Amino acid sequence: MENNPLHISIVIIGYNTKDSLKKTLESINNLIITNHIIEIIYIDDGSTDNSFKTFTNFNLKFNKNQFQFNNNQGRSHARSKGIELASGEWVVFLNSNIRVESNLILKYSESIWKNTAYAFGGCINYTSTDSIFEKYLNHPSRGIKKYTNYQIIDYQNLLFSNCMIKKSIFDTIKLNLDLKYYGAEELDFAYQLNKKFPKMMRASKEAIATRINHPDYEQYLYKLIEFGATNFNYLDEQLKRDVIRFNILLMKNICFRGLFNLLYCICRRYYKIKFISNDIIKIGMLSAILKGYYKIK
Questions:
Q1: Which domain CATH number covers 184?
Q2: DSSP secondary structure string, 31-80?
Q3: pTM (2 decimals)?
Q4: Domain boundary at 192, 211, 230, which?
Q5: What pLDDT is attached to residue 2?
């Protein structure tokens, strides 16, 4: 039996993603909505490719609002602006390279009605021109896929590319505006949420979205190097240890730098080897983060 209608704000952020943004909006227009109040908010992070115009000109069947930064500010700033503009009691976060299933809101609504939680992580499928990396990204042991529906999730598995969060939580826990580059803005937020409100994040496994054209493995490693050299350094010390897993690796010395530079090169070159590709991919990602981290004195 359906409960009272919900007021939901769908916040999309984007930067120079005009083509994929159109696919995102097309999928949103296909959403099945019962009696909920839905608004779509797009925050453009200083795009130069007419992404903002694509949104403003798109004929959405829902109320919409938008804002454009003059210059690229980073994802935390963009999402913070979206939260500021949102009038809903719940916020669904998407990126502009995400295509949603038509029952996304119905499944998130069921999650809210059947559970007590402040955040719900939806399931993400990935497409990539790199078939080996795509297979790794879609492995059933990764992300929300490894949970049963409504199961309490680890904070590491809440991703802003497809999740729903109670808006009032952002009155208590703010996004970290120091994170201006690639990576970890949702990790930092979820870590803080879990510290203050343990066991209040659950899987909404049937709320499904698809990441359009995820970068190939080599491109993704470059992003992780950027993360290691920038945003990683603004994280809480315990969160850094959670990411790296081995405390000793946070000690910067020439031996570690040489070792992980070598591992990075090996993994980037040989990750397509069958039977061990998943392990190589994981080692390569850790090596990329540390490669960036060890660059900073």
A1: 3.90.550.10
A2: ---SS-EEEEEEEE-S-SSSHHHHHHHS--SSEEEEEE-SS---HHHHHH
A3: 0.94
A4: 211
A5: 55
